[in-house]
Write a structure and sequence with these properties.
This protein is mainly β. The chain is built from one helix and 31 strands. The strands form three sheets. It has a 19-stranded mixed sheet that branches. A ten-stranded mixed sheet has the order 5-4-3-7-9-12-15-18-21-25, with no helix packed on it. β3 and β4 form a beta hairpin.
Length: 376
């Protein structure tokens, strides 16, 4: 992993690049002294980290951004944590191994006040694991109440291994995504994990993880839950577990595509096994942008969840569909579809939907497949 840093001596000093450090004027002794004093007094700087795809770094050489009782720090591998107050820019292609049971990038608020609010720029990042292999390898995890303002720059691709979400969120975390129409994020969950949101039931937990709070203001965002996970929302259940709930999802702008093979496109995850329940949709608000949400592929008969709303349960088992939750569409262009007949594309408890019409002419109670709706 290249940290995009100046080389230091062998004393173990940090290799993180601190941006905007005061300039050194070596030919002026006084200015040198002043610069050294400023450097010593300044508590933190913005930080830049660059992955190097040509090196096979240790699997422990991952990034941890955290806050504890002493302050906010960035730690790479086993290095000492470096304090920061500014933004953190991450770029490059991950060339390391699979960090089993961990994540390549982890944002973790250990402080009891839960006050970590960090600005992160993803600038051409690529972290890709095998979606059906690399069990429990996670690309990006947000934990313990952390709040992340994520700015997209260029094209970014994040793919987790089996069971984990592409960008994995605890239920009490907040992720805000910003970018222009030239900036993109593709977040792919591994088998049963959401593209953005909850994981599959893992580490002895059978219920799918609940989604956190996701706010999308701009950029081109593709969230793909693969065969079983939601695009954005809760994770799929595991081994007779219920689907995770969708959390709070707000789309104010941008181009958003949320895809799932079996769970909701946006909303709840599917339950797995007899007598399980699909996750509830949560609170979903769309006020702008262009949104496509799909459960089931265009050619499959899968899609046990809603396009937007509640999760379902697997076709071979008996169970209960998740509730739609609170869905409000007041602007933008929204197309939602679900292939499977047991759940409508948008399940019935809808708080407000503006100017929606069926793309295929049939009753909303129809049991035919390939149901889709468009709201403008």
């Amino acid at each position: 992993m290249q940290r995009n840093l100046p080389q230091t001596n062998a004393t173990g000093a940090s290799r993180l690049k601190r941006k905007n450090a005061p300039p050194h004027a070596l030919f002026l002794f006084l200015l040198t002294v002043i610069s050294m004093v400023v450097l010593a007094a300044a508590p933190a700087y913005a930080i830049g980290i660059k992955f190097d795809s040509y090196r096979n770094d240790s699997i422990t050489d991952s990034i941890r951004i955290y806050k504890d009782a002493q302050g906010s720090f960035v730690k790479i591998g086993s290095e000492t944590g470096i304090p920061f107050t500014g933004e953190i820019t991450i770029s490059g292609t991950w060339g390391g191994g699979s960090p089993a049971n961990n994540a390549v990038i982890t944002i973790d608020d250990e402080n009891t006040a839960k006050s970590l609010n960090v600005n992160i720029i993803l600038d051409g990042v690529e972290i890709i694991f095998n979606r059906t292999g690399d069990n429990d390898a996670c690309a990006f995890a947000i934990k313990n109440g952390a709040k992340i303002n994520l700015t997209l720059k260029g094209n970014n691709t994040i793919t987790s291994g089996s069971g984990r979400a592409g960008i994995e969120m605890d239920a009490n975390t907040i992720l805000t995504i910003n970018g222009t129409d030239k900036d993109s994020l593709t977040a792919k969950g591994g088998d049963s994990g959401a593209g953005i949101g909850g994981s599959r039931g893992v580490f002895g937990v059978v219920n799918g993880g609940n989604g956190g709070t996701v706010i999308i203001n701009g950029g081109t965002v593709t969230a793909d839950g693969g065969n079983y996970g939601t695009g954005i929302g809760g994770g799929r259940g595991f081994n007779s577990g219920n689907g995770g709930n969708g959390g709070t999802i707000t789309i104010n702008g941008g181009t958003v595509t949320a895809l799932s093979g079996q769970s909701a496109g946006i909303g709840g995850g599917s339950g797995l096994g007899n007598n399980t329940k699909g996750g509830d949709g949560g609170e979903i608000t769309i006020s702008g942008g262009s949104v496509i949400a799909r459960s089931g592929t265009e050619t499959s008969t899968g899609g046990y969840g809603a396009g937007i709303g509640g999760g379902g349960y697997e076709a071979y088992s008996s169970g209960t569909k998740g509730n739609a939750g609170k869905i409000a569409i007041s602007g933008g262009t929204v197309t939602a579809s679900s292939n499977y007949y047991r759940l409508l594309l948008i399940t019935p408890r809808v708080s407000s939907i503006l100017n929606c019409s069926w793309l295929n002419p049939h009753s909303s109670n129809s049991t035919s497949q390939n149901k889709s709706i468009r709201c403008v």
